Amino acid sequence: MNAIPLMQVMNQKKPLSHMVFLLFSLLIATATAYAGKMDPSFRNIVSAFLLIFLQLEVFIFFGNILFSSVNFSQNPGVITRIVLLRFAVFITLCFLAAMILFLMLEYALRIINGEDFSGVIYNFFNVGFRSWFRSTISGLSVGALIFVILLWQTSLKREQKLREENLIFQNQTLKNQVNPHFLFNSLNTLSALIPERPDSAERFINKLSSIYRYILENSSRDTVPLKAELDFISDYYFLHAVRDDGKIVLTVDAPGAEKFRILPVSLQILVENAIKHNIATRENPLLISIVIEDHMMIVRNNLQKMSVRLKSTGIGLNNLRERMRLTTGKNLVVEETAREFVVKIPLIV
Amino acid sequence: MNVLIVENEKPAAEKISRLLSRIDSSIEIKGILESVESSISWLQNNPAPDLILMDIQLDDGLCFEIFETIRVDVPVIFTTAYDEYTLKAFKVNSVDYLLKPVEESALSAALAKYRKVFSGKFHSREEIENIIRDISGQYKSRFLIRTGTGYKSIPVTEISHFHICERSVFLKDKSGKDYGLDYSLEQLQKVLDPGKFFRINRDCIISIDSISRISAYSSSRLQLTITNEKDNDIFVVSRDKAGDFKRWIDR
Question: How far is A254 from chain B (nearest CA, A)?
């Protein structure tokens, strides 16, 4: 069953979905009438139609609120508890809503037809309750069905999105894994070091292979230990520092890094972005700092933007943002002031 | 031969210097520059070298900004590590380049080629512009104008409009000065940011921030009042451009 179109129907922001609900309600109302469950008068059909339509809108509204924001990446026990709780809330709300809608409709009908409406509530709880309850239960079964579908849709959609973003990342990272620009520049540097400074050259080679090994091993993982990512960044920076001779300065302050995990290669993407977009001269070096603050990794650099720079696919920051959201449910924070650019990555415990 | 090296990475500059002296010990390296700014300054204050070896990415921007700011009448060999857009742009505009890591044989061949051709290859302005656009995806940020005494570089933000007068194209800046340009309006349309510039009729391209008022005009046209311009008769948006103009203004 192709899940996504159904999901789009459930999205109440589209006029199309409201049309679908209207038609559906009309169908059920007329079907009920002609199936003999009630007197097929115009008034009955219209009130049934209205009731069903309003209930449908309200149930789906509640369903969307309660279930589209569930974070599925926590452990199953937590998820089950959350889902059951929300389901209970959902059923209660729907029940109450159904009751209120029914009563409102009764009042409205009586007022329109000039009938006496004083005994409506009494009537409801003593006389009409059984039949109301029966039809509401069937309505709520539909509600439960809708709930299950919504849940399923949300998780499917999320899985698909995550797979897509991971594919984009991996595909881009395949190029990034090689990162030809970085590789050939590094090899050029290496060929300069070899005849003049063979010891430096050897150290350079070791760091270069560490980097590639890290990227190859970790790109497909969801999270890595923060310590590993920091070691990787320090190797990456070392290779840059040999080339740019103090024009880029990276400082890292991360006490207690062992407690955390982070998205792989995330810090490197941010550092690389900073280098790509900003001027770095001896008089005005680029200063990048990485600190831990409140369970977040803060990557900060002084802003000195280059006016013209190489075209990049721009996938870096957005893809990171998406992967972050899909994997952890949390958001990247990006702040740009006149003097600095700050990105905050939530850490995973 | 006098060679200028424009390369912001020390090991890479050392390597090129070493290769050059190995290939031909008579080559004299006149300077090693690391940024667009220092290159422009050096080229303006020193006698021109015979050849420039230039890296694409410098400390403060792309090397092509040098060509947008001053006139460079020296043959240039570019060096690049790897960038798909850059390589494509170079190939399309038949620009000579060397791939990093630079091989002695490749450098030697490039030098030999330049020695043979007496006046070397100077890059046309159009080539440079195409390259910048291809590798940065950005539009022209300034124009190089030949003035009586030399050259002047006018940033795009200072431009009020472009217009045709007596079959020639002129650039008028916000202070009201007119400069002759060697571009057709069609060529300008290709290199200007379409979000900021609009061709209102056959004879004029205006910048969005010089429009102070738009009024209706006969035959479904629009008349624009341009800041600091008294003669508003030429700033009429033609009928067939009026629709696009309204949409453009609305963005």
Answer: 29
Mutation pick from B16, B85, B100, B131 vs chain A, by most beta carbons of A within 10 Å, is: B100
CA distance B1 to B53: 13
Nearest to B209 by CA among B200, B217, B198, B201: B198
* Placement of tokens 């240039």 in the chain: B76
* Tens-place pLDDT, residues B94-136: 778 899 999 999 999 988 887 776 455 566 767 777 787 777 7
Under an 8 A CB cutoff, do A279 and B59 touch? yes
| pTM: predicted TM-score of the whole model, two decimal places | 0.63
Helix (H) / strand (E) containing A326: helix A315-328
Q: Is B210 helix (H, G, I), strand (E, B) or coil?
A: helix
Q: Pick from B9, B34, B62: which is nearest to A309 by CB? A: B62
Angle between the N-to-C axes of helices A226-244 and A180-196, in degrees from 0 to 180, rounded to the nearest 10: 60
Q: Residue A272's closest CA among A239, A296, A242, A297? A: A239
Q: Report d(CA A61, CA A222) in Å as an integer.
A: 33
Percent of chain A with pLDDT over 90: 32
CA distance, residue B31 to nearest chain A CA (Å): 17
pLDDT tens string A244-277: 889 999 999 999 889 999 998 899 989 998 998 8
- What is the CB neighbour count within 10 angstroms for residue A113? 9
Alpha-carbon distance values, A68 to A8, A13, A154, A325 (Å): 13, 14, 6, 14
- Using an 8 Å CB-CB cutoff, list chain A residues near B138: 308
> What is the ipTM score, two decimals?
0.71
Measured in angstroms, the CA of A323 and the nearest CA of chain B are apart by 26
d(CA B249, CA B251): 6
Tell me which residue of B205, B227, B226, B224 sits closest to B216, measured CA to CA: B224
- Looking at residue B102, what is its pLDDT? 93
DSSP string for A114-160: T---TTHHHHHHHTTHHHHHHHHHHHHHHHHHHHHHHHHHHHHHHHH
Q: What percentage of chain A exceeds 70 in pLDDT?
A: 85
HSE-up of residue A249 (Cα within 13 Å, Cβ side): 10
User: Which pLDDT score, from 0 to 100, does residue A39 have?
Assistant: 67
Residue B71 and residue B28 in contact, taking contact as beta carbons nearer than 8 Å: no
Kindly tell me if the per-residue pLDDT of A41 is higher than 70: yes
